[in-house]
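Sharing in case it's useful to others searching the archive later.

Someone asked me privately for the predicted structure of Muts domain V-domain-containing protein, so I'm posting the question and my answer publicly. Question first, with the sequence:
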Amino acid sequence: MLYARSPSVPRLGIACFGSSSRPRLAPTSATVGRLSVQSIQNVATAATPAGATSRSRPRPALAPTSRSSLPLPAHGQVRGKKTRTAVTLGELPLPVAPKQLPQGLIVAEPLPLEDHEPTYPTVVLQARRNMQKFDGCVLLTRVGGFYELYFEQAEEYGPLLNLKVAQKKTNAGPVSMAGFPFFQLDRFLKILVQDLNRHVAIAEEFPNDAAKKVKSGGLLHDRKVARIVTPGTLIDENFMDPYANNYVMAIHLPASAESEPPPASPADTAPKEVDVGLAWLDLSTGYFFTQPTTLSLLGSVLSRVSPREIVLDKEMESQRGHDIMAVLEEERYLVSYSPPGELQNLSDWQPMLEADIPARTAEKFTDNEVKAGGLLLHYVGDRLRGLSMKLQPPVRHESLQVMNIDKNSMRALEIKQTIRDGAFKGSLLHAIRRTVTKSGARLLNEWLSSPSTSLEVISHRQDLVSRFLQNEDLRDAVIVLLRRSHDSQRLVQKFALNRGEPDDLLRLASTIKAAEDIVSILNSVISSQPPPETDAQHEDCLSTMIGRISLDQPLKLAKRIWDAIDEEGLVQQHQIEDSETGEMLALAQEIVKAEGSEADTALLPKGAVAKAAGTNAASGKKKPTSLRDFYGEDSEVWIMKPGASPIITRLHAEFASLLQDKIALTETLRARFNAASLTLRWTPGLGHICHLRGKDARRSPTTAADDDDDAAAAAAPVRTLSSSRTTRSVHQPEWTVLGERLDKARFQIRTEEQRVFGALRAHVVHCLVKLRRNASVLDELDIATSFARLAADQNLTRPVLHDSLASPSPPQTIIIGGRHPTVEGGLAEAGRTFQRNDCLVGAPGHGRAWLITGPNMAGKSTFLRQNALITVLAQVGCYVPADHASLSVVDAIFSRVGSADSLFHNQSTFMVEMLETAAILRQATPRSFVIMDEVGRGTTPEDGAAVAFASLHHLLHVNRCRVLFATHFHDIADLVAQHRMRLGDGGPVGAVEMYCTDVEEDGQGGFVYVHRLRKGINRQSHALKVARLAGLPEQAIRVARGVLEKSGVVDTESREHSEVTHKTADTVG
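And my answer, the predicted structure tokens:
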């Protein structure tokens, strides 16, 4: 027996066979789609036979829907309307044997319900599907000339981007949307990616072919995500920092480290050496590095590399309490998560590399490095959405001979930014950067982060600087040529990612030409001006640089580019694009001016206001001819020269012939119709038309054909397509045929241009290795010439370096007349001079550690930092600010300077200080150079002095390194004497020398700081003088002085209210 169903529930049928019992709905837990409660009641009623009531049978138990959780009524089932339902045979269950017929109540499986949700427009529906697929990204959907956001993303990010959020009316209800013109993509990507650290999925329009159009119901475009842009995977965006690398780093932790629980108490926070693998790359240049390290040293590596994005395994997303999270949160790194992927072996990396990994290098990779590299490549490949990439073979940073500068020292020495405000100005990099290319500036940044420890590398760099310093003409000539080059590292990588443009080809050709000219100049200098016999290594350094440049293939590439690319055509094309952009901005300005407010006007780009002003000034006059009209269809703008290929040459000849035919046809039709204003045009709406103006438009063109001798032409029909008071557009078959031939010729030329351009791209990729090597040489020449300019401008000296491992003498740092490279420049701007000081740590007759005391503001910290910075500059290959410098190579620099707390991590100022001190005592080696300032000041004087002395004792006896130790705890000097650690005490531990700064007073309350170091101990800190200079109230000064007088520290005969003058014309604080 079949029972009727409610018409509101599609295709729901319940059948019962072989039983006289009344069927009833069985309980089910299936989720019901968008059915209302009334519809559910109708279903239950329709399935109940006549005569049955809710009391005579149990009510069906229906699960609440996902959209509505309203309970069913307790009683009062409403009977549905009787309807006739037609059921096909295929909808009935298959017959069963009589013995298998179920008796009693039959449990019916719920049938799937059709989804009758209102449909969105195609564009909105495509965007919704992409948002669901890429749920962690902000989706920008290309719609014609705009990129648009929809739904909740429009509401969230529209205000952040200063975009107006509108409501798009659809059958499914209003949809929030916001958008911006396509040419402003970089502007909004900068806000989303760089400022807000968001991942942005860009969905582009892909034309559907005939088959896809039929399959999709006639859709012209399919919108698919072509790329996911993240802070660490930028390629060629205009907002990228051109002076710094844009690294994305993957970190792999072994499974045991991932599952290790966090420490339960502070007592369990002892350092644990957990091995981790690192891999990082710059997608804009193709640089690829790996390094094994430990979790305790991870912070220092991150400070050196400065990645924009960190990638961890997806499993780490749930382990928020892991130790690595504290390291990453401390510097607020952006962390992304990714599955490990399938690139688990070095051989799997090969398709993404420009060359094979050398066998000897491949043997050295640790398992953690390989896992980190596989995770990184999988993540980057997923972000590029199938875009091919060619990276340089990975370089193991462990095999590089570089100085280690931990994160605390990088910050305290202000190598790349200042401590106070994180500014670039005031840093060491700002003080020495004189490079003229962006890629050279990036390389200098890398060198400062990782100074070399190889004497061969350092000497080669110094030799180059010396040669350019001695030959000013050579230096200036190379700098001029370097200015003509471009950022070829990033240019080449764009082509490796299949993203280069014709302009990039011209820039690359210009760079190749600059490299050729530089090689020519260097060769001429070597042949005409050989260096003195005593300085013959300079010739070797220039010859070495020339030998590293390969020009054969690149010059052929450059010639091919110049022979193919039409520079004038590119200029015209850019003018047309700028004109269209300006017209759109001007239109936006006019609309905002008419309908918006001043606040809306402020949101427009500055160019819109200027363009609108020019438009308004020309109002009332005839609209000037646009560039597109000037370069019309007959004056096509081509990016390739006619001789770029034989096919283009033939096509241009055919096209020129067709243009002559068009001119002849125009004259013929003008004579035939007696219409001098007739022109042949093409419009999107009407196609190929004959356009008439003025009096010619007011007269029917067929009347002019009566006087024509050609009867066939006179009889040809002329159909008017559109007309107005002053214009008329008519159809002429002859022009239609010729116009289609012209369109076909244009299309063929464009197609051949794209083929030639693709061949040029392939040629660039073929020369990829040589172009990158040449670019590296140009970057090094840029740094060498900049160092030479710096040395000439600031009177710098070439340091002498030697390896203490190959010398029987102990490591030493001898600096005569040293100056602080950044402070000196700041004083010079203020018209003041810097007090030079000598540093003879480890020199014969001098101690391996200097204990420095003296007043506040007397230059102790400046002296410590300047010697560390001079060491860094020397091992970078730069000349140093000193009269003389002789240094043993340093493997690591450690700095404990300044004070700060970390309340977020529950660490007090003293705790932070002790953590930094502990790291130094664990890691310093006999080749290290350590500077420590005011260790122990975060606690009581007694405890602080004890901790400070213990640190100095450990550095001398265990680490046995070079130390500069500044303190206000004068008891440390007594402890050094008691433990016979002074240099004069002799013995194996006698290595400490006492030095100090001082204050000179005039007896009238005036004083001047003496920043010149002298031997001895200064037990006066003169804190009240600094307090008075800082503006401490006089009453507070008197109270403090009284306390000190009672303790016997301050001389009671000195004046309390004397005027204090600070004379520092020749000093620095």
